[in-house]
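For reproducibility, we list the full input for the zinc ion complex.
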Amino acid sequence: MFSGIVRCADCGEKLYYCTSMNFEAIQDHFVCSTSRLKGKEVCPTHFIRTVVPEQGVLAHMRMTIACAANHEEQFRRAMGAKQQAEAKKELAAKRRQLTQAERRIKELDRLFKRIYEDNANGKLSDSRFQMLTDDYEQEQEELREKPLLLN
Ligand SMILES: [Zn+2]
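The corresponding predicted structure, in tokenized form, follows.
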């Protein structure tokens, strides 16, 4: 359950999960990968039985559930505040993306005018003009659809 998540408190590296057919479930454990790979001089052997984090997380879940059950109103408020903060952050990010998209749409309008003039002056071939026009139009269309997808 905790494989790849738990880390050594001293060196910060991953803990290896150790289990065996010959082990009782209670003997399953994690060992610091640094002490295994580089030796005990680098990081002393840290060892934790798997049941310890399991029981710790279970205790924490029970506490959270009890807290939610016994103090429902406060719990609701605390979670609501957290969600609101996250929603606000998300909205700000979407606004930034929208501003960028609008800026690019305007830029594409300017570019389109320029290639139109270049084509009219004979600086840009008709086929090249058509190709660029298609590209710009496609990009604009995608940019105009994007904000809708974000909502
Ligand atoms: Zn370590």
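The first strand starts at residue 15 and ends at 18. Residues 8, 10-11, 13, 32, 34-35, 43, 46 surround zinc ion (CB under 6 Å). Both points were considered when choosing residues for closer inspection.
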